Amino acid sequence: MNFLRTTSTGRLIAGLALTVAVIAGGVAVAGAAGGGGSPPPPKALDVAIHDALVAPKPAGVTARIRFTNNLIASGALGTGSPLLSGATGRLWISGGRVRLELQSDAGDAQVTYGDGRLSIYDASSNTVYRANVGSADSTGSQPTPDHGAPSVAEISSALQRLAEQATTSGAQPTTQAGQPAYNVSITPKHDAGLLGQAEIAWDAVNGIPLRIAVTAAGSDTPVLALEVTDISYGSVDPSTLAVSAPAGAKVVDLTSPLHVGGKDGGHSAVEGLQAVQAAVPFTLAAPDTLVGLPRTGVRLLSDGTHPSVLVTYGQGLGAIAVLERSAPKAGTGTSPLDGLPSVTIDGATGHELPTALGTLISVERAGLSTTLVGSLPPNAAEAALREVLG
């Protein structure tokens, strides 16, 4: 099946849920009870970061949060999930486990994470999306917070390297969720596609992240943001973290089998234009440059049955990725993204998903499915795909 079918609405929901869970999970990495409501004293950024990393870890976190999502235009995917429309809710973290409960006019959702397993329950469709997203320490042990933490000098050196690519604001004293906090903004100096700025604020006493936001170029309104509006530290009842979906809920496994490998599904990497072309049954389209960006990689991917090729152009946030594979046979199913605006690129038909931070286009022509993803506006992404299709 083609890339858009694997990048279904469910996968978009799961991707956003994982983003939220990872951000929220950062809350558990450090911190003891904090307090106060006045901005903290000024600190150099390297010192503020170091102090946050070595702060002691709390027994647990209970918080109210606000999640903002302006990534995709309202109603574009025909779903009422609060993970796609934004919501308010509650957050609990303890022993490496996370529970996020979201409520909005568009519907409710429950996101849980623990032992490397992510689960999202979308009440609007009565569906549970599950995925294995990595390993975790199931013992719930509490590691020493400052184990392996970089020194102030090492952090300063890293910030100097970052300064070659981005402008940082320094640690700005502020308040968030009634806590004294430091806020830093990071603005790319070079091509970052449609990304404008990223911000993070953390508790000045214990280093717990309290707000993370991303804006698009030319806008002051966050595209994605997760912020704590009220927080307390202390033990969390294990039963609070142990929630399950209704017995009649539909279950969808989102764990992707796609991996780097050869024609037999093995894990030995096949890279380079000639080697990859020899490993696939279709003619690969991989021009040396794409809209002025040099080709930086050609890699074989496989789900164990259908080989795919990932071709990348450029570096960093301004890079473009192109995925090519044999098109699915007629009658093998429809994609939830089929409701998106259709596109025709040089005779190839498909669908387009524009977002505030980039565009995804997938088309089919002559038995080949080609998907392009980049931090580009739709017209620029379409121009790039035309070059690929030749």
What would you note in describing this structure?
The protein is α+β, with helices and mostly antiparallel strands. It folds into two domains: 251 residues, Lipoprotein localisation LolA/LolB/LppX (outer membrane lipoprotein receptor (LolB), chain A, Clam), CATH 2.50.20; 131 residues, 2-Layer Sandwich (Phosphorylase Kinase, domain 1). It is 17% helix and 39% strand. It is built from eight helices and 22 strands. The strands form two sheets. Strands 1, 2, 3, 4, 5, 6, 7, 8, 9, 10, 11, 12 and 13 form a 13-stranded mixed β-sheet that branches. Helix 3 packs across helix 5. The longest helix is centred in the first third of the chain and has 17 residues. The two termini are 23 Å apart.
Q: Which keywords apply here?
A:
nine-stranded antiparallel β-sheet, 2 domains, single chain, Phosphorylase Kinase, domain 1, outer membrane lipoprotein receptor (LolB), chain A
